[in-house]
Amino acid sequence: MSSTGAGPGVTPPWTRVAEAEQAARDRLPADIWDFVAGGSGDESVLTGNLTELNRITVVPRVLNGQPGGVRLARQLGRSETRMPVVIAPMAYQRLVHPQGELAVAEAARAEGIPYVVPMLSSHPLEKIADVGATLWFQLYWLRDRGVLLDLVRRAEQAGCRAIVITVDVPVMARRPRDLRNGFALPADVTAGNLDDTGPTTHTRVPGASAVATHSAVAFDPAACWSDLEWLRAQTELPLVVKGILDPRDAVRAAERGADTVVVSNHGGRQLPAAVPSCAALPPVVERLAGRCEVLLDGGVRTGADVLRALALGADGVMYGRPVLWGLAADGGAGVRTVLGLLRTETEEALLLSGCADLAAVRQLTVARTVA
Ligand SMILES: Cc1cc2nc3c(=O)[nH]c(=O)nc-3n(C[C@H](O)[C@H](O)[C@H](O)COP(=O)(O)O)c2cc1C
């Protein structure tokens, strides 16, 4: 992860999200910090997401006075959202705070943005739904399609507003930090929606990640486009396909009924040679030509990053690790602080670029600086 420059023990209100990152790092046990912060391979994809996004510059317009302020609200995945941001699915949030997904859902509700509950949430979906936030539910391709279908039905019954299928994990990539730590879940953190993870996820094995061991057993590396057609036919809910980088795959997903694609390399946690997600975005947007909605994740940290993503043609972003930093550092209040900061920064970014609304951002000129 990037060096934050923030000193230890920075308490909220944070003025930069990097302060939340530092506070989380100070607070978390080293192996859990590594699970959250780490990536696959030599972590060049993880850092590449950040550096490439920072190379995107936007040419502001002037004298577009905005007496009414800026308008950030829009629909994403057919859900109303107060800003073009959705909280990314991230497994086992009780790892970083006992309230875990419940606290994140509460912050999402307060902020008026959708929250993608991960299949591997550490509270049951129904309990998270009781909080009353706008929820989307994320799935992996489980080998057992019966269990997968049961999860879709549970999501519908719990009032989820979209199904997210993650397509970039045929197997979980080698994540060296987790291997080195022999990472396993603490006894009190379990997969709240599955009853068959058994002792696997809690058993520390030197040189292995228990989370990866479980996924190797449970996930289906043979999933293909006909499986997406099958899933599309199972539910009326909007379908979000997460983990697209090639424009040809984006078109295939749209042709099979995806409402939204998420251009993502899983935060640098999967293919160690993957293209930075923001570099993959413009060709996807161009090839889709409006056939479906496009979200970006990977390295989005600030309101300036939201502006960059929108100017590159995304309809919105998924916000990942910073949410866990806020949660680890200060529970639900920390998540609210991080989300509030992102909203304030995004409003400011629009105002300073002469944009009254999100449509105007799309018209801005983008330039990529060379290293
Ligand atoms: C700790 C952690 C757990 C994650 N778990 C999942 C998951 O269960 N399902 C999924 O689709 N993506 C998962 N992701 C990937 C995120 O949804 C998102 O793509 C990524 O975090 C974006 O990168 P960023 O956090 O650097 O912005 C996880 C990411 C992290 C950091």
What's the CATH topology name? TIM Barrel
| The CATH superfamily title | Aldolase class I
Give the N-to-C terminal Cα separation.
19 Å
Q: Ligands in the structure?
A: flavin mononucleotide
Alpha-beta classification: alpha/beta
The side-by-side strand order for the widest beta sheet comes to 4-11-10-9-8-7-6-5
Poorly predicted runs are 1-7
- Specify the biggest β-sheet: 8 strands, parallel
Proportion in β-strands: 5-15%
What is the name of the CATH class?
Alpha Beta
What is the number of independent domains?
Answer: 1
Q: What's the rounded overall pLDDT mean?
A: 95
What is Rg?
19 Å
Helix share bin: 40-55%
Describe the structure.
This protein is α/β, with parallel strands linked by helices. The protein has one domain (17-368): Aldolase class I (TIM Barrel). It is built from 14 helices and twelve strands. It has helices spanning 17-27, 30-37, 44-55, 100-111, 125-129, 145-157, 176-181, 210-218, 225-234, 247-255, 277-288, 303-311, 321-352, 358-361, and strands at residues 56-59, 74-76, 79-81, 85-87, 115-117, 135-139, 163-166, 239-244, 260-263, 293-296, 316-319, 365-368. The protein has an eight-stranded parallel β-sheet. β5, α5 (125-129) and β6 (135-139) form a beta-alpha-beta unit. The protein starts with 16 loop residues before the first helix and ends with a strand. Residues 1-7 have low confidence and may be disordered. The structure holds flavin mononucleotide. Flavin mononucleotide binds next to α2.
